[in-house]
Structures are given as C-alpha cells and as structure tokens.
Design a protein that fits this description.
By secondary structure, the chain is α/β, with parallel strands linked by helices. It is built from 27 helices and 32 strands. It binds one RNA strand of 77 nucleotides through strand 7, strand 14, helix 8, strand 15 and helix 11.
RNA sequence: AGGCGCGUAGCUCAGUUGGUUAGAGCGCACGACUGAUAAUCGUGAGGUCGGCAGUUCAAAUCUGCCCGUGCCUACCA
C-alpha cells in the first residue's frame, strides 16, 4: 500500500522560484490600485508621527546605485517605523535649480549654434524648468520601482512657486536682521565664461605657468642687515603683481641676507645685489637665478622681520605704496623663496591675511574678461592668463624681476570650457557667521543632535567651526534670485519688510521669474524711487534652496512636522545638505531642523574601488532590478554596514540571491505547513510542548531585539538575526524536528495543533519583520495567506508579544539539549561515513551525559529531537570507544543501528514493524482514525 | 598635500573595559535524503585579524610609522 496519501505534506501555491523582475511590478500595481500610501495614512491617523525628511536628489539624470542605497534605506526606516505603529509619512522631494541643469541647456544651445546671452532670461529659465520636470518624472518612476513608499502624487520641489517664494522669504529674514551683508571675496573666476564658478565647477589639470622672482626693495626695517636689501618672492602668477599689497613670511623660518658676488652671463640678477631669502632655499634660488658666488651678510629669524616695510617692484611707475611684511602661518620652505607675495584680491589666504587680519584694502585690478584694468600703469590691458611672459619681461626691464622660469603644475580649470580660471575679487553677498552669533549657536545646538554613526557629530562640528562666512550669491540664471535692492548712493541694501513682502507675494503666484522682469517700482511701491536703487540679479546658492526645505516642506505641509526626526544622506552631505540646513535653520529659527542625522557611506565595487566607466565596474540599480529584482537590492542594503562604504558586484549579488532564497523558502515552508490552517486549531500556551514554548521564547527575544534595533536604525543587525533565526533555529532545528509530527501525526492531536499554532505565529511575525526589508516578497507571501489585496502586510504593525512567552528556564534547558544534539549529529555523521547508516532514522544512539544534562531531557522524546528512531540518555560512564567532540565536554555517544523494520508511512525504524510495507503502531492508529 | 573614516576566512559581517585555541551565516568540499526537491539536512576545510615596529606578563583590541582604499578640503606663493 502507498501511504503517501495519508501523510500531510506541505502544500502551497507560493512558488519556490520568485521571478522578482516580473512579479514586483505586479505587486507595485496592486499597491497603486488599493492606494497603499493613502490607506496607510488613514490607518495611522492620530498615531505619533515619525518624520524622515527627504534630502532632495538633483533632477538631472538617471539614477545610480547611490540613489538606490539612499532611498532604500529611507524606505526601510519609514516602513519599520510604521511597523512600530508610527505615522511615518514620507514626502520625497527634488532639488531643481542650479548650475548642472544650466549647463545642459547651454549645451543644447551650443549644438544648435544659439547664443545663450541672446536668449531672454525668462525663456532660458523655462527651459531649465522643463528639463528638471522631465528628469523628476524619470527618477520618480525608478524610485517607486525600488519599492519606496511615499507621497509620489505630490512631492516637493525647490522650483515650485510656493517654494521659490518661501526661499525668498527666508532670505528676507536674514536680510532684515542684518546678518546678510555685501562683501568682497576672491572667487574662482572664469574669464572665458565671464562668471564666478562654484567649487563643483572646477577641475584640476596640468598648466604651464610663467614664474618670476620679483624683488621688493626694503624701505624701512628695524634690522640693520636689511639696509639696501631686497625681499625676493617667487610667484606662478605674474599678473597678480599689480594687486600686490603685502609680503608674507614665516615666523619660524630662518632667513639669510646675502650679497651677490658673481653671476653667470645673461642673467637678470646683478653683482652687488643684496637679497633676503629663506636660509634653506638660498642655494636653490641662487642656482635658479644664476648666482655663482655670494657672501652672507646676516641670518635672521622670521619674527625679526615684523614691521619691515618694502616697496613694490614697480614703485617708480605708479605703484608707489608701502608693502608691509606680515607673518603668515601658511608660508613654507618647500619651494619659492620663503616669502609669499600677497595680492588680497587674488587668493583666499591672501585675502584673509591682508584684508581680514590687517585691514588692507582690496584693490580691483582685473576685469571680468581677464584683462588687467586699463588704468593700471604698465600692466593695463595685459591678459591674466596669456600675457605673463610679457609681464615678466616688462618687469625685468624695469629691474623688478630678477629671474624668470616656467612651471608645470596642476591648476584649476573650468569644468565646462576646460579653460584655466583665475582668482578674482568680486562683490558677493554673505551671511555672517559671527555678527549674530550664528557659529556659536550652531556649535552649541549641534551637541543636542543624535548622530548615526556618532562620528558624524565631530565631523560636522569641525566643519562649522572652521567654515568662513556663507557666500550666498551666484552669478547665474537658474535659481531663486537674491531679492535685494541696493541704494545706489549708500551701497546699503534696502531693509523694508513691506517691500520684501510684495516680492514674496508676487513670486508665490508668478514664480521667481517675476523678479527678472523690468518692473522694480512694482515692488518698491510709492515710498522709494526705482532710480535710486540697483536691483541685484544674482541668484542664491542652491544650498540655500535645499537648506530651506524644512521651512517650505516640514513647516508648510499640515501632514508633516518640524523639526524632523531624521535627516539621512551620504556622508558627503556633512559639507552639503546637513550643513546648509543647519545654518539656514539656525539663522532663521535659532534651532536645528532635525533631531537626528544618519549618514551612509558610498557604494564601491567588489574590490573596494570607486565605480567608473573606464574600470567597467559600474553596477546600475536598473540592471539589478531587471535581472534580480528590487528585493535583492534591498536585501543588499541591509546586509551591509551602511555606515561605512558599501561594496557591490556580481559575487555579492549572487550571495544576496542565496540569502534571499533562504528567507523565501522559510516563508514557503510555513505556508505549506499551514495549509488549511484554522484558528480553531489553536492551542493555548500551557498546553504546548516545551519545544513550541522554546520557539515562542525565541520569538519574544527576537521581537525585543528587533524593536530596539529598529529604533537605532540598525538594520544590519536585524538582517543578521533574522537570517540566523531562519537558518539555524527554524530550518535546521525546529522545522526538521517537527516534520514527523506535522506530516504523520493526527491533525487533531494537541502536539500537531500546537506546532501549527506556533507556525502561524512564526508566519505572522516573519512577514511583518521582513516587510520593511523585502517589501515585495513579504507582501507576496502575506497575500498567499490572506488573499486580500486591501489587507496589505504594510498596513500591519509588529504584533505584541504576550509576556508569558519569555521563559528563561526553557531557554537554558534547550541550549543544553542543543549542545548534546550537536555531538549526536557528529556521531551520526561518522557512522554515515563508515557506511553504517544513511538516513539518521536508521540510528538509535546511546548518549552518555551528566545528570544536569539528563534532566534537561525530562519529558522529551530524545529520538524525536535527534531525528533518530530511538535514543537513550544515560548518566553511566561511557565506554572507551564512545564518540566525543573536543568542543563539548561531558557528552559521549555510543552508536547503534535501530532495530526493526522501516515504517512505510513515517519511515522510522521500529521493532513492531516486521513486514516490508508494514507500518508502526503510531501510524497504524492514525491511519485507522483517518479511515 | 591636509582633515575624517575604513582594512578580521572566497563574500557579508560579529568580536564587549587588551585576557583560554579569533566567531556567525553564506559560499566551497564531501556526504545524506529523495515527503520543503532548481529544495532540505549533516560534517568538514578555510584567517601571520593590511604590513612593520613599539607599550604590556598578555594586542584583532593601545601607540607610532608605512601600504591600500574611500569621503571631504586644497592644489597654495
């Protein structure tokens, strides 16, 4: 007789093979059909809010793997907070203004042969707007495909009229309170594009510069040795000489004053010249200048140079001003002469030392086209980048230069035009870090913010502590304008709240474009004359846009709240969004816009290298979704230590699919085992076997851990716990042991019902625990059970755990049992290798243990736990040849083959079975009852 | 070049205040089962804890230097 029909094998329609690339879009469609997002909002109405404020990605291209990591992590957090019962409303957003989009539009113009300057601003801005709108839709679709749940119907954008108006309004606040000021600053300037460039627009390439050694005759000094001497500087930028206003020396550097006694032919330096140079560099410089012999007049320490005044090399030709020697901490003796010429209009350090520290005025010497301003003697009309050789010759003729050379070095270039750029001093708008205590408040408040990982706090703190004033103005077109009128006479910005309110109101209905129309009097009203004011046409740094999102998103949307619980971005945003949002919020509200900050690392290839087209190691989220599915990508995120850099590549993806299968098969087995399960089968806790109680205990401890790890955003920990639980506790242990009961016992038996009660709990818990991570598969499995699309797994919460499930006595007992079991497994393996048995059911081990261990087995059927047909647990001294494991003390196993015949139904070897197709007593009873 | 990180088995990760023989899961190898079957179970082999030096009775853990790698900043006369 064939007993297979009398055995209750697992049965389910939930397929073993996932086919995620095909299945996920279907599940997505179901979610859209039942409007899961809206439904979840309704379900969580009135619940405590959890606000993860989305840092806006830039709307200008296809998503890369970094976007995927970022959005998946956000989604896992939101879904898991929702599982904790919170109302985690996620509103995605986009950063739409800014340079990269302008580039793209300009690029299109160039292809069509169009001139950007000939296009009206409004038209140009509209094209930028359309461009951003296009990519926004593309990215939105891809984010949703990743399973990210949020308000995709009404996301926020920085280019919405409301947002633009609000950003201008925010600017108004710092304009009114006086922390916004107009200053001059040396910025990277591209003479080709006639514009200032942001740091991101700069790339460094080799460039050949003309170098000069210039002499600055000492006018007055406390040092007698400097009488008649010249200070010698070396520079790679001769064109900055008209802007020279000081010389920097190093306090701790030793200098030597030498007199030239012999020179080579055809050199600029003369016998008898008295020069001052860094001691260490004398020989090198002498060599470069062609000096063949010299005598040392004196050696002085750097600090002795304080107070020395020199003359400009061209003093006789219109540059007749004092050039003081100043101590500069940045001066080194790695190259040059140990003296650095300071042109405050052409270098950040120069500006800081001369202007900020010593109050030296900043001259304007170079025009926006790169030509030295015509009114400047000798240099006027020469080009900063092209005429350096001419400048050097000219200066040499006048005796100001005593050495000319060339240097190939890396030099900033415009990313767009590939042309070299210069530092140029221009008028810009700044937010002061000090005038209103911004820096100090910021640093003080920073200590109250929670950082994940903690190191982020230190990083952000040191950045805020060191940063200069925030330069808000950009000479650009696509962005929110600095809505400022400057009084032509006083140079002061107009600070009239009524005027500014009119501007903001106009922007709210017409967008920021209204600022660029020629209608200043509309805003100025009757109190001011448009003729008296200059309208600023600069636009705001886009970091101010995104730094203001907390205002126009968190505060302005009734379904959100400020400050946010969490900001979450890549670690590069310490310098970016975290930074600008903090400053913006502190400047306008005096507090941080977030309670917590989480940073993740960057995605690298399998070998820890940066992804690049040339290395051919780029992994795109699109490819992974098409080949493996979004759930694999989601699993990858939580399997990684995302606080550090993450790696991805073919092997890692392969490993992830292996891991995925384990989760999927666990769910599948549970679904199969629960075939036809009815709540009426349920067995109360007290009536359950110890093994079931042990599983419930594991659920209780796991639940506790998962809830705690959810709150600290430790999903890698959750992933590890869940994976090992499915592997070691369920598949290899609990499921394996309970197969016999599940397949062969009577459906109505207490044991089998208890087992299914527990499996039902397991299924409920696992689908909920996994839902934030593999959101598609959790839904698929859940639907395989409930069959009701409106009852989505994502509307659920983690089920509460009854207090009595926690049972440390049972836990201790079963950890002893599992130790013994491990030795038995090894002993059986040895017997198997010896050819004594195949299946473990052929064995009947005798296990020698301590009394404590034996009592752990009280009330247990040891054979069931070992999956053998019989087993005895004794405290007798074991025979010498008994099997032992080094790692487990006090356990020995004597091997024996089970006696009797193999039951044709349950496959156990039992003494009562004698016939070939006979069955054991238990099965006999079951079959009889079933019939 | 500077600041901040990271470097533990083929892969992903644990390693508490320095303290037995460095752990887990996957993968791999071998075996079993053929009633979770493109599954499942068992056993096993894999590591000079990036390298070198130091502190210590004792270092994956502390210190210094070096190498590799990433982010940020700078390319500086």
């Amino acid at each position: 007789m064939n007993y297979k029909d009398t055995v209750f094998l697992p049965r389910t329609d939930f397929p073993m093979r996932a086919g995620l690339p095909k299945k996920e879009p279907e599940i997505l469609q179901n979610w859209q059909q039942v409007d899961l997002y809206r439904r979840l909002r309704e379900t969580r109405q009135g619940a405590p809010k959890f606000i993860l404020h989305d840092g806006p990605p830039y709307a200008n291209g296809q998503l890369h793997i970094g976007h995927a990591l970022n959005k998946i992590l956000k989604d896992v957090i939101n879904r898991s907070q929702s599982m904790l019962g919170k109302d985690a409303n996620y509103v995605p957003g986009w950063d739409c203004h800014g340079l990269p989009i302008e580039w793209k539009i300009e690029e299109q113009y160039r292809k069509k042969g169009k001139d950007k300057d000939a296009v009206p601003t409004a038209e140009f801005r509209q094209e930028c707007r359309d461009f951003a709108a296009h990519w926004l839709v593309v990215q939105s679709t891809e984010f949703q495909r990743l399973g990210v749940l949020g308000d995709w119907q009404s996301p926020y954008t920085t280019m919405a009229y409301e947002a633009e108006a609000k950003i201008a309004e925010e600017l108004g606040k710092i304009l009114m309170d006086g922390s916004l000021y107009r200053g001059a600053k040396p910025v990277m300037w591209s003479p080709v594009e006639k514009t200032a460039l942001a740091e991101a627009e700069i790339e460094y390439e080799d460039h050949t510069s003309v170098t000069i050694y210039a002499r600055f005759p000492v006018q007055s000094s406390a040092l007698q040795a400097l009488h008649n001497a010249s200070i010698v500087i070396w520079t790679t930028t001769p064109w900055t000489m008209p802007g020279n206003r000081a010389i920097a020396y190093g306090d701790d550097i030793a200098y030597r004053i030498i007199e030239v006694t012999a020179v080579k032919d055809d050199v600029l330096v003369r016998k008898g010249d008295v020069l001052c140079l860094a001691d260490d560099l004398c020989d090198v410089v002498a060599d470069a200048l062609g000096i063949t012999a010299m005598t040392a007049r004196a050696t002085v320490a750097g600090h002795e140079l304080a107070g020395t005044i020199a003359a400009h090399p061209m003093a006789a030709d219109g540059y007749d001003f004092e050039v003081p020697l100043l101590a500069g901490s940045h001066v080194t003796t790695e190259q040059g002469t140990g003296f650095v010429h300071i042109a405050p209009g052409h270098g950040v350090e120069d500006y800081e030392l001369a202007h900020l520290k010593h109050g030296i005025a900043v001259p304007e010497t170079v025009g926006e086209d790169g030509y030295i301003l015509p009114h400047l003697p000798l240099y006027g009309g020469m080009h900063a980048l092209r005429d350096n050789a001419r400048i050097a010759d000219m200066m040499a003729q006048h005796g100001g230069v005593i050495g000319i050379g060339k240097l190939v070095h890396s030099y900033p270039h415009s990313w767009r035009s590939k042309a070299p750029v210069i530092y140029r001093n221009t008028a810009q708008w700044f937010v002061s870090m000090e005038s209103h205590g911004l820096r100090d408040t910021a640093l003080g408040e920073l200590a109250k913010t929670a950082f994940y990982p903690a190191a982020g706090q230190k990083r952000l703190t040191s950045m805020i502590a060191q940063r200069p004033d925030w330069c808000l103005s950009r000479q650009r077109a696509w962005g929110v304008p600095l809505t400022i009128f400057v009084n032509k006479e006083t140079g002061q910005p107009l600070r009239d709240p009524a005027v500014h309110a009119r501007i903001v109101e106009a922007m709210r209905t017409e967008g920021a474009d209204c600022w660029f129309l020629p209608n200043a009097s509309r805003f100025l009203g009757s109190d001011y004359s448009a003729d008296d004011y200059e309208q600023v046409t600069d636009i705001l740094d886009v970091w101010f846009d995104s730094g203001s999102t907390h205002a126009f998103v968190l505060e302005d949307r009734p379904d959100l709240d400020s400050p946010a619980d969490l900001y979450l971005e890549g670690s590069d945003q310490h310098r970016g969004w975290f930074h600008s949002s903090l400053l913006q919020s502190w400047a306008t509200r005096g507090r941080a816009p977030y309670k917590g900050v989480l940073t993740h690392g960057f995605v690298l290839d399998e070998h820890g290298r940066k992804m690049s087209k040339s290395l051919g190691n780029v992994v795109t989220p699109q490819a992974v979704m098409e080949q493996n599915g979004a759930d694999i990508l989601r699993l990858w995120v939580v399997s990684s230590d995302y606080y550090n850099d993450l790696r991805i590549g073919p092997e890692i993806i392969k490993r992830m699919t292996d891991t995925y299968r384990r989760f999927r098969n666990t769910l599948r087995y549970l679904l199969g085992a629960l075939d036809g399960y009815d709540q009426a089968e349920q067995v109360g806790y007290d009536d359950m076997p110890d093994l079931e109680k042990w599983v419930l205990h594991r659920i209780a401890t796991l639940d506790d851990r998962i809830c705690r790890m959810t709150e600290s955003y430790d999903f890698h920990g959750i992933f590890t716990e869940l994976h090992q639980f499915c592997n070691s506790d369920l598949s290899a242990f609990y499921f394996e042991i309970r197969k016999d009961m599940l397949y062969c016992d009577l459906p109505g038996s207490t044991g089998r019902r208890a087992c299914r009660t527990v499996m039902q709990e397991l299924f409920n818990r696992l689908t909920a625990w996994l839902a934030p991570i593999i959101c598609f598969t959790a839904e698929e499995a859940w639907q395989a059970y409930v069959g009701d699309p409106e009852n989505s797994v994502h509307l659920r919460q983690y089920d509460a755990v009854p207090a009595n499930w926690r049972n440390d006595d049972i836990d201790a007992n079963w950890s002893l049992i599992r130790q013994v079991r491990q030795v038995v497994m090894s002993a059986l393996e040895k017997a198997r290798n010896d050819g004594a048995i195949g299946a473990s059911l052929q064995a009947a081990p005798q296990v020698y243990v301590t009394a404590a261990m034996q009592s752990a087995f009280d009330g247990q059927d040891a054979a069931t736990l070992f999956i053998t047909s019989a087993a005895t647990i004794v405290t007798d001294p074991p025979p010498a040849d008994a099997f032992r494991l080094d790692t487990v003390a006090d356990v020995a196993v004597g091997f024996a083959v089970a006696t009797g015949g193999k039951c044709a139904r349950c496959w156990k070897v039992m003494p009562e079975v004698t016939a070939d197709d006979g069955i054991c007593k238990r099965c006999d009873d079951v079959v009889a009852t079933l019939a």
